[in-house]
Each structure stands twice: as C-alpha cells, then as structure tokens.
C-alpha cells in the first residue's frame, strides 16, 4: 500500500471517528433534552387538568375518564391488541392510594411518604388533595414532535456526510503534499545510484521535509565534489608518477644502448627521481592510513621550542642557499606538550618547505610557538612569500592534490592534506591566513579536545 493511500486513510479514519462521535453525542443530548422538554410540558397540562377537575367535582371520582377525553391519558386497550402508550404520570389521592396508575405504580397501591414528597402536590382551597408522581416513562411524541426530532437527525447525518467528504478531499490533498518531496528524493537517489551524483531536489517547505531536501542537496553536491576531486587526484598522481619514471626509463635505455656514459651525475639524477617516487608513495600511504583511522601516534611530552629548533636545523641549509632568513620565536611560558614529535615535525617540515617554495630571495620565514590558556599550544609558520589567492585559500587542505600541474620538484602535493590529518588526530586544528603579495601564515592549535 502506497504511503499516500495510508496517509489518506489515516486522515479519513481520524476525521470519520471524530465526526461520528460528535454526531452521536449531539444526537443523544438533543434527544434527552427534547424528551425532558416534553415531560415538563405534559406535566404542566396534567397537573392543571387534575386540579381543575377536583375543584369542579370535589372528588377524584371519574377523573380518569375526563383525562382520557382530554387526550391526557392513553385510551383503553383491548386485550390482545398493541401494548398501551407509556404513561408518564400517576395520580395519588389524599389517602396515598394510586387512583391513576402508571409505570411501577399499580392501581390502589399505597405510596410511601418519602415517594410522595418527590411528587407534585395538588392544592385545592389550601388543602393538599392529591399528588402527581412522575413515572419515568417517556410520553409518546406527537406527530409534529416526531417530525422535529427526525429533521434534527437528518441534519446531523447530512453534516456528518459533508464532513466525511471534506475530510477525504483534505486527506488526499495533504497526503499528496506530504509525499511529493519524498517522491522527488526517491527519483533523485535513483539517478545518483545510476552514477549522476550531482542532483538537486526542490526545497518545497521550511519543515523537516524541507530540511531533508536541503541536506540531500548538500550531500549530493559534496559527493559530486569528492568524486571530482578523487578523479583529479588520480590524474595528478598518474602525472607525478609518470615524470620520474620517464626520466629513469629514458636514462636506463640510453645507458643500456651505450648512447650515454654512466657518469656519477646521471646516477644522482636517477636517485633524485627515485626519492621523489619514494616520497610520493610514503605520502599516499600516510594519507590512506589516516583515512582508515590506522595512523598510530606515539605521543610523548615534547618541548615546543626544541621541536621548532629541530625543524629549523633541517631546513636551515636550504633557506640559506635561497637567501631566505629562517628564524624561531617562542613564548616564555612554554611547557612540555604531549604529542607525536616525529609526526609534528613532518607537519611543520611540510609547511616550511611550502613556505620556502613560495617565498622569494630576501624573504623571511618564522616558526613560532606560544601558550594560550586554557592548555592550548599554538604553533605557526609565517612567511613573506607570494601569499595564497583568496579563491584557492578555502581548498588548500583538500586532497585535490594541487592545481599547479606545471610545477616540478620533490613535493608530493598532498602535504597540507597530510598536515591536517595529523593535526586532527592530535585533537587540534590547522588553518591558513594569507594576503596575496604579502605572505601567508599557517596556524596549528593543539589541546582543543581536552577543553571542556
Ligand atoms: P603542494 O605540493 O602543491 O604545495 P600542498 O598541499 O602542500 O601541496 O599545498 C597546496 C597548495 O597551497 C599549494 O599548491 C599552494 O598553492 C598553496 N600553498 C601552500 N603553502 C603556501 C605558502 N606558504 N604560500 C603560498 N601558497 C601556499
């Protein structure tokens, strides 16, 4: 059974039950109220007729015949014919004996004082000459009364039927409106399953279904982007693997043919290319381990100043060769921090090697560490290089490899993606700030996860 049908049925059933209960309740209360009205009205007539009779005749003798003639008592019933009409009132004389029977009060029966007190006393010339008792039997309705009550019931039925039809139409409308976004989503997910990852469904409302449509659109856009970046990365890696392999392959072929002589320089060139391949494979492995959550950290208390000095020493020579000033600046209140020093050195090394690449001669690169309450260590690498264009700044940590395919050199192009994975494994975060033409700064904040 379709969801639309289920919802329509649910709406319809709920409305029908509500309408039915309301109709039954209104019907019953109307009927009770109307019966009470008839009893009250008949009681007035009965009491005034018997009072008049006694006043005129001075006794109750023949009162039943007189009332029968006035139509206030049902006519005698022949034995074997239909049962008599219900008798709503009984009359009791001054000796507490029933003279007009009705309901449970039998002819001649002596009525108790307590029961009499509940009746309506008949007074003639200041004396109580009898009592009218209500038997509890509902008097027969006259033709006009029956017509009235029937018309009330008819109106109730028409209203219930009208309500039911409106409930059905509303149910169909609501069910269709509610399931429309779901149908959109089903169609879009089918398309996605077929390989078209970029899907958009219309956001039709601001409720939970609208939110679902919005998150679906977001998810689809993210998936499409991730897929695109995976393709780009594969293409870039293939490109980076091909370059060194072409160089090494070319050299080996020429050496084999004897076209080139095996000089030490040629072997150094080939070794550099092999190192490049080695680094690329290492980076890919680190990234895939981080992705799988299997990159183990060996954290130990580490002095931040020592860490920065080690990175400086590693890149000092390269910086001097390029005429760049590489210095370290640390805060005075630094304390030892628990981290995987080797991995963190790899992160800072990546940042410094990027900075060296993008900083011209005469520039400056500064490594700094400072302590921030409560319990945070902030490490940064600042340079006076070319800066990062604002349009690529938000994407530099993505593993879309890199945009600059023309660049050659030892970098794997996965540096920042690896840096982010390692920093996040430490429970910290990394971000970049940059002014094109003036320089960039990469800031690592550790100790965030221990904060409450
Ligand atoms: P790559 O091997 O391309 O440097 P990274 O992930 O290390 O790969 O960096 C991604 C991109 O970020 C780089 O291609 C470059 O455009 C930009 N970038 C990183 N560091 C700097 C920097 N210090 N100055 C300017 N641009 C930078």
List the helices and strands and how they pair.
Layout: H1 3-57, H2 63-69, E1 89-93, E2 98-100, H3 113-117, E3 120-124, E4 127-134, H4 143-193, H5 208-257, H6 264-291, E5 300-302, H7 304-321, E6 325-330, E7 337-339, H8 341-358, E8 364-372, E9 376-383, H9 415-425, E10 429-435, E11 439-446
Parallel strand pairs: 6-8
Antiparallel strand pairs: 1-2, 1-4, 3-4, 5-7, 8-9, 9-11, 10-11
Helix pairs in contact: 1-4, 4-5, 5-6, 6-9, 7-8, 8-9
This protein binds adenosine-5'-diphosphate.
Descriptive account of the structure:
- The protein folds into three domains: 3-134, no CATH class; 208-291, Signal transduction histidine kinase, dimerisation/phosphotransfer (DHp) domain (Helix Hairpins, Orthogonal Bundle), CATH 1.10.287; 300-450, Histidine kinase-like ATPase, C-terminal domain (Heat Shock Protein 90, 2-Layer Sandwich).
- It is 54% helix and 14% strand.
- It is built from nine helices and eleven strands.
- It has a five-stranded mixed β-sheet with strand order 6-8-9-11-10, covered by helices on one side.
- Strand 1 (89-93) and strand 2 form a beta hairpin.
- Helix 4 packs parallel to helix 5 (208-257) and helix 8 (341-358) packs antiparallel against helix 9 (415-425).
- The two termini are 50 Å apart.
- Mean pLDDT is 89; it is low at 405-410.
- Bound molecules: adenosine-5'-diphosphate.
- Adenosine-5'-diphosphate binds next to helix 8 and helix 9.
């Amino acid at each position: 059974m379709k969801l639309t049908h289920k919802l329509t049925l649910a709406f319809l059933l709920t409305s029908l039950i509500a309408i039915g209960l309301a109709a039954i309740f209104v019907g019953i209360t109307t009927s009770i109220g109307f019966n009470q009205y008839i009893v009250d009205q008949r009681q007035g007539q009965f009491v005034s007729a018997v009072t008049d009779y006694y006043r005129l005749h001075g006794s109750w003798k023949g009162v039943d015949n007189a009332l029968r003639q006035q139509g206030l008592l049902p006519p005698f019933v022949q034995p074997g014919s239909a049962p008599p009409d219900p008798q709503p009132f009984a009359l009791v004389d001054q000796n507490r004996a029933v003279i007009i029977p009705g309901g449970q009060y039998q002819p001649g029966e002596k009525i108790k004082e307590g029961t009499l007190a509940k009746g309506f006393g008949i007074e003639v010339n200041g004396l109580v000459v009898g009592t009218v008792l209500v038997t509890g039997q509902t008097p027969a309705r006259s033709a006009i009364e029956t017509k009235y009550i029937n018309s009330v019931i008819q109106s109730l039925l028409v209203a219930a039927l009208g309500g039911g039809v409106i409930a059905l139409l509303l149910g169909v409308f609501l069910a269709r409106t509610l399931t429309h976004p779901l149908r959109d989503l089903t169609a879009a997910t089918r398309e996605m399953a077929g390989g078209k990852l970029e899907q958009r469904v219309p956001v039709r409302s601001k409720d939970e279904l609208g939110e679902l449509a919005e998150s679906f659109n977001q998810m689809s856009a993210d998936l499409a982007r991730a897929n695109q970046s995976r393709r780009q990365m594969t293409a870039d890696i293939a490109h980076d693997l091909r370059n060194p392999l072409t160089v090494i392959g070319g050299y080996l072929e020429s050496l084999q043919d004897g076209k080139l002589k095996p000089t030490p320089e040629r072997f150094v060139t080939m070794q550099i290319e092999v190192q490049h391949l080695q680094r690329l494979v290492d980076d890919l492995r680190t990234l895939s381990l981080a992705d799988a959550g299997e990159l183990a950290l060996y954290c130990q208390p580490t002095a931040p100043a020592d860490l920065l000095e080690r990175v400086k020493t590693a890149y000092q020579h390269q910086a001097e060769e390029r005429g760049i000033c590489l210095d370290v600046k640390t805060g005075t209140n630094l304390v030892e921090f628990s981290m995987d020093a080797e991995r963190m050195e790899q992160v800072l090394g990546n940042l410094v090697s990027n900075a060296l690449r993008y900083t011209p001669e005469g520039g400056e690169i500064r490594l700094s560490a400072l302590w921030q309450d409560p319990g945070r260590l902030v490490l940064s690498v600042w340079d006076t290089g070319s800066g990062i264009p604002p349009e690529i700044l938000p994407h530099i940590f993505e593993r879309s490899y890199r945009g600059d395919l023309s660049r050659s050199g030892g970098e794997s192009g996965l540096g920042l993606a690896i840096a982010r994975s390692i920093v996040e494994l430490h429970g910290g975060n990394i971000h970049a700030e940059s002014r094109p033409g003036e320089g960039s700064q990469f800031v690592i904040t550790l100790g965030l996860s221990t904060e409450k």
